[in-house]
Specification:
By secondary structure, this protein is of the alpha+beta class. The protein has 11 helices and 20 strands. This is Putative nickel insertion protein.
């Protein structure tokens, strides 16, 4: 499944994200409790949710009203207070990452260190409620287990008055937070993207695309913004099922002509242990008609350096070829367990099931499970494979 965050028309703000998450099924009553309680040590807020219509589109509006104003606070003390909140560990850690993005942007703009930068609008109690509310809703919907795709952000235009005076739109903090993301000015003379909304977007998005990829939309949530324009002031989030998922991988290769079979087997297992997605070894003829082997490893970007280091150390290779960020088409897959009775004993077997457009295209038992049954029962592996289908 993929989740599409669509801020192409009216930008993004924390309360718009929360409204869209509630529209998708997040518990508004629980969110109200979490947001008000979390913001309390920075200033009391009151959170309300209501269904409203924005230019013909029914959406959920999350309103966070500040009931108490406190002085700005330096970043280290701010984070200390966040760490003491009674929240799930994942919610707290991800919220801190969002605030760190905002703090880094503020420190760069003002020429200060993280230890000395003060939060103004960004650190106010309503922003705390927005960030923690967004992240709490994100986890409550189990979206951390889904691929999150962001579309380009409309940032608005014109000027806006802040604690630092009149500044251009998009605000400098928004520009810093959205570095390497796609954004577009307009379509109105107003601020559409806030630092809070932009920071949450950058933290939870796995990928940012120009257009919606090939999907089947299942459910849509709309979060309303406060202002009224000639167009619907809403943020759209689409929950979808992928027709064909796409995966970015690195393909890493090197030639080997001096390793023994045992050493190749050891390297094979080690690469899988450190995170390689797949490993293959193919016999080849090298220069001067020397027999050798081609080692090919498929790896995710985050494991690339570990894989390369292991290949250098274990093979002594002087050169490794890397094809980064290659696209790999993959079917949707899931795992299912079944019980089989063999020789009056029950065995659990895990099946890997592949889907395309909701139809099963493959269903295979895991080799390690078949191997254990063969060893335990004394039956040939081939016989076990025939019995378990």
């Amino acid at each position: 499944m993929a989740i599409i965050i669509d801020p192409q028309v009216s930008g993004i703000a924390g309360n718009m994200l929360i409204g869209a998450f509630v529209d998708l099924g997040a518990d508004a009553n629980k969110l109200k409790e979490v947001m008000e309680k979390s913001a309390e040590c920075f200033g009391k807020v009151e959170v309300t949710f209501k269904k409203i219509n924005k230019k013909g589109i029914s959406s959920t509006y999350c309103h966070v009203e500040m009931l108490e104003h406190k002085h700005s606070i330096c970043y280290p003390k701010f984070i200390e207070k966040i760490k003491k909140l009674d929240l799930d560990k994942k919610v707290k850690e991800t919220s801190i990452k969002v605030f760190e993005r905002i703090a880094i942007a503020e420190s760069k703009i003002h020429g200060k260190t993280l230890d000395t930068v003060h939060f103004h609008e960004v650190g106010a109690s309503d922003a705390v409620a927005d960030v923690i509310g967004s992240i709490y809703a994100y986890y409550s919907l189990n979206l951390d287990n889904q691929k999150i795709i962001g579309l380009p952000i409309a940032v608005g235009g014109g000027r806006v008055e802040t604690a630092h005076g009149i500044i251009p739109v998009p605000a400098p903090a928004v520009v810093e937070v959205l570095k390497n993301a796609k954004m577009i000015g307009g379509p109105v003379d107003s601020e559409l993207a806030t630092p809070t909304g932009a920071a949450v977007y950058m933290e939870i998005c796995d990928e940012i695309k120009e257009f919606i990829p090939l999907i089947k939309a299942k459910k849509t949530g709309y979060g309303a913004g406060k202002k009224d324009f000639d167009h619907p002031n809403i943020l759209r989030i689409i929950e979808s099922s992928d027709i064909a998922e796409s995966d970015k991988i690195d393909v890493i290769e090197t030639n080997m002509d001096h390793l023994t079979g045992e050493e190749i087997g050891y390297l094979f297992d080690k690469l899988l242990d450190i995170g390689a997605r797949d490993v293959s070894v193919t016999p080849i003829i090298m220069k001067k008609n020397r027999p050798g082997n081609l080692l090919k490893v498929i790896s995710r970007k985050e494991n690339r350096e570990k894989v390369i280091e292991a290949i250098f150390k274990e093979t002594g290779s002087l050169g490794i070829r890397i094809a980064p960020n290659m696209h790999r088409g993959i079917s949707k897959r899931e795992f299912s367990k079944q019980i089989f009775n063999i020789n009056d004993k029950d065995y659990e077997v895990t099946f890997k099931i592949g889907y395309l457009n909701g139809e099963i295209i493959s269903k295979r038992p895991e080799y390690e499970d078949l191997k254990k049954i063969a060893q335990d029962s004394g039956l040939p592996l081939k016989k076990i494979s025939e019995m378990i289908r």
